[in-house]
Amino acid sequence: MRECQGEAMTRIGEPLAQLHASSLPRIVILISTRIVGGPAKGILQVVPDLQRQGRFDVIVCPFANRGEPESPFIRACRDRKIPLHILHQRFHFDWQPLRDIRGLLNVPRAVVQTHGYKEAIFGLLARNMSGKRWIAFQHGTTQENMKVRLYHRLDRHITARANAIVAVSRELADRRIGPSGRGRLHIIENAVDKLPMGRVRDRCTQIAADAVRPVIGCIGRLSPEKGHRELIAAAGILAAQGMDFSLVFAGDGPERPHLEATARAAGLCGRIRFLGHVARVEDLYAELDMLVLPSRREGMPNVILEAMQYGLPIVATRVGAIPEMITDHVSGLLVPAGDHSALARAMGAFLKDVNRARTFGRRARESLYPRFSPERRLARFEELYDGILETS
Are 144 and 129 in contact (CB under 8 A)? Predict the structure, then answer.
């Protein structure tokens, strides 16, 4: 077992919980992500705030294969001094981590919190074995293949048995949580930190200095449900109209080879760049003149909040919680999912009228707080934990 303070090994006969001794109610968070995105960003944001409040003993438990290098998510937890207990596994559904999870829950007051289908299975088993309460989070879903779709269906079925269910938006709750779970439902929206006043943003060296301005950015995993094919088609329309722009994709995923081939076939290689994973995405926002999110399916995308934070004009599809975040024709432009012509028209509207684009970006930034503030999100987490601990 590893902790953020250094290495520690469970001694024979010593309960695991003693290595994390605390008189506070314990929150054991299970997550299997390797990257810093989506649910991981929320954990990295809220756990340090919970620690500063000093009301809960929070331990983040990422799954990791034995012998593999530490993931970016684990390194980010260490950087923020978040208490860790790494659940080492020999293969994907190795049941050995269940012993550690039960040990961590072996204190008078404890809750297990899960993020994802695999974690939900462990959460259900740990709840049944320990008698402790279980909180299951529902996030956005992907549709990249049959296996993933089956996993999401399994997650929905198992999550319905949790003591409390959390969704990041009302739309996601309506889509993913059946009538039987509504009485245990909590909505906790994502949040984004306020930028320091007068912050100087570094230029992103991954974008060439001679890139055609303005620069349009699309940030996120390159998977089918993100709608990148429609964005390339829209870029082709704008290029045919003689508009000057560059388009950058930040992120990686299974769609990248196809998207690169599509850009080449459309003769857009001089305008489109694929940056792959960008470690410091905040530097990238400093380079962008517009953010486009052409997704076919979303939960509550952090990338929208981050673009709002930087005052970027936003073009996005009318899916998931995006219409709850952006007011169409006030703080951004929303188009139907899958409609590359409508996407091109909205992007073109901002390209043709820079003052209008800047006004929309300013309105988006002004609409962020207090609704999407970390302080409000922290208060919702505390209410959630207090409520479920009262019933345990």
Answer: no
Query: Residue 218: enclosing H or E segment and its boundaries?
Result: strand 215-219
| Residue corresponding to tokens 């198992």 | 158
Backbone angles phi, psi at 273, to 5 degrees: -130, 140
How far is the C-alpha of 36 from the C-alpha of 65, rounded, in Å? 17
What string of pLDDT tens digits covers the 392 residues of the chain? Answer: 333 333 333 333 345 555 566 789 999 999 999 888 888 999 999 999 999 999 999 999 999 998 899 999 999 999 999 999 999 998 888 899 999 999 999 999 999 999 988 999 999 999 999 999 999 998 765 555 666 667 667 777 888 899 999 998 888 888 777 676 677 899 999 999 888 654 434 434 445 445 667 999 999 999 999 999 999 999 999 999 999 999 999 999 999 999 999 999 999 988 999 999 887 888 899 889 999 999 998 989 999 999 999 999 999 999 999 999 999 999 999 999 999 999 999 999 999 999 999 999 999 999 999 999 999 999 999 999 999 999 86
Buried b vs exposed e over 14-42: b needs ≥16 C-beta within 10 Å? eebbebbeeeebbbbbbbbbbebbbbbbb
Q: Domain limits of the chain?
A: 2-191+373-390, 215-366
- Cα–chain-centroid distance for residue 341? 28
Q: Quote the tokens at residue 218.
A: 């699309």
- Helices in 251-294 by DSSP H: which ranges? 256-265, 281-285
Separation CA 258–CA 176 (nearest Å): 30
Topology of the domain covering 215-366 = Rossmann fold (3.40.50)
Please give the full DSSP string across 164-207, using - where no structure is assigned. Answer: EEEESSHHHHHHH--GGGGGGEEE-----PPPPTTPPPPP-TTS
Is the bond preceding residue 214 a cis peptide, omega within 30 degrees? yes
In terms of CATH, what superfamily is 2-191+373-390?
Glycogen Phosphorylase B; (3.40.50.2000)
Q: Determine if residue 116 is left, alpha or beta; phi over 0 gives left, psi from -120 to 50 gives alpha, anything else beta.
A: left
Whose tokens are 């390194």? That residue is 75
Query: Are the CB atoms for 167 and 185 separated by under 8 Å?
Result: yes
Which amino acid would we find at residue 122? Answer: F
